[in-house]
Every structure is written in C-alpha cells, then in structure tokens.
Amino acid sequence: MPVNVPVDDPTADTEWNDILRKHGIIPEKPPSPTPIIEEAIAKAREEAYQTRLENKDLDELDELEDVEDAEFLEQYRKQRIAELSTISQTSVFNQVYPLHKPDYSREVTEASRSAFVLVHLTSSLGTNTESRLLTELWRQMAHTFGDIKFCEMRGDMCIEGYPDRNTPTILVYHGGDIKRQVITLRELAGTKTCIRDLEQFLVEVGALKANDTRLHRSGSPARYTSLPSRKTMPTPTHAEDDDEYA
Asked: What does each C-alpha distance from 239 to 23, 89, 171, 194, 236 come to in angstroms?
C-alpha cells in the first residue's frame, strides 16, 4: 500500500529529500542552470573580444595603439587596408541602372557572372508606396555598395502582363542565374523597410559579408539572420513565361 510521505519542498537540498530521492519517492533534483548560463556568458565575452576591432575605421584603430598589442594591431590594420582596397577596386557601379528588355540578358544575366545584380521591378502606378520607397532606397544602396549592380525596370515592361500587385519585386542574380526574389516588401518590413532591412537581405543572399564595414548596424553581426525563402520566379527573359502573371 503506498505511503504518503510528507515533503515540504521536493526541490530543497536537504538530507531528508536526498533519502527520498534515493528511494525514488520524489524525482531527482533538476540540474542547476547556473553552469549553462556561465558558459553562455563566457562564450559571449570571448566572441565580443575576438570581434572587438570589427567596424572600426583606420583612425579608430590608431587610437587603440596604447591598449592593443602593437603587432596584432598592425596585422589587423593591414588586413583592413586590403579589404578597403578590394572594395574600392570592385566598386565600379555606384548608381542605379535603368533597364530595357532587349538589353536585359547582357545587363543582368551576363553581368551577374562577375558581380551580384539586383533588379527592382517597379510599379507602373505612382500611387504604389512600397515601389516609390524602394526606388529611393535603391539609390542609397547603389551609392554605398558599388560592387553590387542595382538595376530598375517597370514590371509590366519586363514581363508582359506582370500584375502591379506584385510590385515592387526584387530579383537577385549571381553566376548567370536568378538566385532569389522578394515579391512586394511584406517579406522585409513593408512600408517601414529601411536600409538595414535591405542590408540584412543582402547578407542573407551572400551579396555582402556579415562583417562588411559598410553595414549600418547598432549591434553584433548576429542580427543578420535568414529570411524565409519563396518559390523561384521564372527568369523575365523567357517570353513564354509572360502570361503566367496576368
């Protein structure tokens, strides 16, 4: 016959509770979360230390000469100069390129073999707030990220019958193929979409590295997370696809 054993607090660390646990009368005490928390804190501190120089420009690196190891700082400075040199050499676009359908293959598909190409399919209506917003953001992004080619074209002129409700549409090309598309800005932040949202998108598709010094970020690179993917849209250069969106 079961015996009811009085237990004031089954989680208390007492000799009586140890006896009860030994005989299986009360469950084992759950492990303390303290070691896990301490490990997470230690890991976060280590990561913060390892990335302490990220996002600092050359002048800020010079100011750290008294607190950082001179040899390490010099090595990091050379690495940063090399990164800036690479960005400077590959920043050959720096503007938004208007597209015409006969030139689409050359300006987009072929160009994407040497650089990421992003196409904004715009609305044919001046009342589409999201499309107007993206046009302005496109100009700012093109000026900052000159190694990425930003293009723009009216959706219904790119794909015959393309519905205005699907604009703005973002198409990402790389390696001669379309890699990603975003239909309207709902997938980002709607009419509240900002530069940071587009930067996050570019990091997610691989067009930018998470530690790119040009990124506007108030926190760690961890904020750049994956966005949900969508079904791939047919390449606009295929005439047989034009009726699909009527």
From this structure: 77, 36, 17, 33, 7
Give dist(CA 68, CA 53) in Å, integer. 10
Closest to 164 in 3D by CA, of 119, 131, 198? 131
Q: Are strands 177-183 and 169-174 parallel, antiparallel or unpaired?
A: antiparallel
What was the pLDDT predicted at 224? 37
Q: What is the pLDDT of residues 120-164, one digit of tens each?
A: 999 988 889 999 999 999 999 998 898 999 999 999 999 999 999
Beta-carbon count within 10 A of 9 CB: 8
Please tell me whether the peptide bond between 168 and the residue prior to it is cis, using omega within 30 degrees of 0: yes
Tell me the pTM. Answer: 0.58
- Closest alpha carbon to 46 in 225, 220, 204, 217: 220
Tell me how far apart the alpha carbons of residues 174 and 180 are, in angstroms, rounded to a whole number: 9
- H, E, C per residue of 73-101: HHHHHHHHHHHHHHHHHHCCCCCEEECCH
pLDDT at 133: 95
Q: Compute the distance between CA of residue 23 and CA of residue 100 in angstroms, rounded to an integer.
A: 81
The Cβ-side half-sphere exposure at 212, using a 13 Å CA radius, reads 20
Gap between the Cα atoms of 144 and 159, Å rounded: 29
